[in-house]
Amino acid sequence: MAKEKDPNLMEKVINLSRNRGFIFPGSEIYGGLANSYDLGPLGTELKRNIKDLWWKTFVQKRSDVVGINAGVIMSTLVWQASGHLENFNDLLVECKKCHMRFRADELGKDSCSQCGGNDFTKPTQFNAMFKTNLGPVESKENAVYLRPETAQAMFVDFPEVVRSARMKLPFGIAQVGKAFRNEITPGNFIFRLREFEQMEIEYFIEPPKTKKDWEKYFDLWLKEIRKWIKLVGIDASRVKEVDIPKDERAHYSERTVDIEFEYPFGQKELYGLAYRTDYDLKAHQKHSGKNLAYKDVKSGKEVIPHVIEPSFGVERTMLAVLLSAYSEEKAKSAKGEEEVRVVMKLPKAIAPYKVAVLPLSDKPALTKIASKIRGDLQERFVTDYDVTQSIGKRYRRQDEIGTPYCVTVDFDSVEDNKVTVRDRDTMKQERIAIAKLGEYLEDKLNA
Ligand code: ATP
């Protein structure tokens, strides 16, 4: 069953996410909160693993990138300097009949989707930043904003990082964390949220003398993004790179490539790559009055570096990963009947559970060994333990959530101190000595 052709893929992924505890609607016992989602036990592991893999790939394994962790609330002056207070606006129109608001650029010639009316107000500006107050007094002076992107902290903290980490150009500063946008039209499950997470890098380079000098780094980062897409398990055949024309780019960008994914609801942005020139450091230098130049230790020369920014959304990654990993295969049940096997073919590195321990029955002779094995494996991996239902059904449950390995403890185990290890993708089974199990799984999971 080719997943590209499955018209119900989105629905299936949403249902599975909910049933198995990946993602469910937030505040549901109170009727929910529009477009908010909570992560259940499996979703929490998946997200953690994606962020860890990203950090390992782009920070831990690179000598030229370091991380920071800044506040969600920063000085309002940051958003003045960055242009967000002035420019982070959507043009909105309001239906005069039912007062529903729409983004002017999305409405086109359509009538109101809420009431069918077609009389709208003139477009007005609406700032997408969430506003709150610092301290108990609600006043203009105390107004602060939840960050709409993680990027600005990398510019604001630039001198501290250069000084403390002694970074030499070219180098990057990375951050993973929450961002908030009061989106007018959130939706498509976790695609467009008002509270989400970003993984961003600001990669600082020498001011380019020619176009080639920055294009070189732009291309390098495009390659890194392509590699990441494969690594995290996003179906590359459904990814398109779109060069954004000048009139559609952000005011600071000299070149933007949107990395788009063919979601079931259309081809939409997954990630972005932008050449932000020296716009941000210059803007912050001007507004703060502080010198944000980078001083070359050898030459003593001061320059304002230029910036290449790869930007990744965590939830959009999760959605693209789940849509890519979901597969249905024809299989035979234990009784020999034809059935559909649902498998989440997640890369091992991001699978929520790495291994599930399944005693064949709930006889104490087996559960005693199985509990001991589980205890040992828990030291190394996030592990599940399941003793209810037939073994075939339990395998299917683990396939559905992407668990790479199942360990079955049967009556032979009592005699030979061995267990059966079943592979999620091939369904092949191997007998492994309990004493060597941890190491065996470690090798397999790191392969
Ligand atoms: P879009 O055009 O879809 O609104 P954007 O161009 O505003 O996205 P950026 O400002 O480039 O997005 O943000 C960088 C990344 O953050 C995006 O590529 C996406 O992965 C993620 N992102 C942005 N907005 C949201 C949102 N509302 N919900 C979830 N992820 C988001």
From TrEMBL:
Asked whether the UniProt record includes Mitochondrion among its keywords, one would answer: no
According to the lineage, what is the superkingdom? Bacteria
Pfam families in UniProt: HGTP_anticodon, tRNA-synt_2b
Swiss-Prot/TrEMBL catalytic activity = tRNA(Gly) + glycine + ATP = glycyl-tRNA(Gly) + AMP + diphosphate
The Gene Ontology terms for molecular function here are: ATP binding; bis(5'-nucleosyl)-tetraphosphatase (asymmetrical) activity; glycine-tRNA ligase activity
* GO terms classed as biological process: diadenosine tetraphosphate biosynthetic process; glycyl-tRNA aminoacylation
The entry's localization annotation reads: Cytoplasm
Q: Name one GO cellular component term.
A: cytoplasm
Q: Which annotated residues bind ATP?
A: 181-183, 191-196, 269-270, 313-316
Q: Is this entry keyworded Transmembrane?
A: no
Under the heading Gene3D superfamilies, the entry gives: Anticodon-binding domain, Bira Bifunctional Protein, Domain 2
Q: Which UniProt keywords apply?
A: Aminoacyl-tRNA synthetase, ATP-binding, Cytoplasm, Ligase, Nucleotide-binding, Protein biosynthesis
Annotated positions binding substrate = 103, 149, 196-200, 309-313
Which coarse location class describes where this protein primarily resides? cytoplasm
Family that this chain belongs to: Belongs to the class-II aminoacyl-tRNA synthetase family.
Q: Which HAMAP family match?
A: Gly_tRNA_synth_B
What is the stated purpose of this protein? Catalyzes the attachment of glycine to tRNA(Gly).
> What is the designated name of this protein?
Glycine--tRNA ligase
Question: In which organism is this protein found?
Answer: Candidatus Colwellbacteria bacterium GWA2_46_10
Give the gene that encodes this protein.
Answer: glyQS
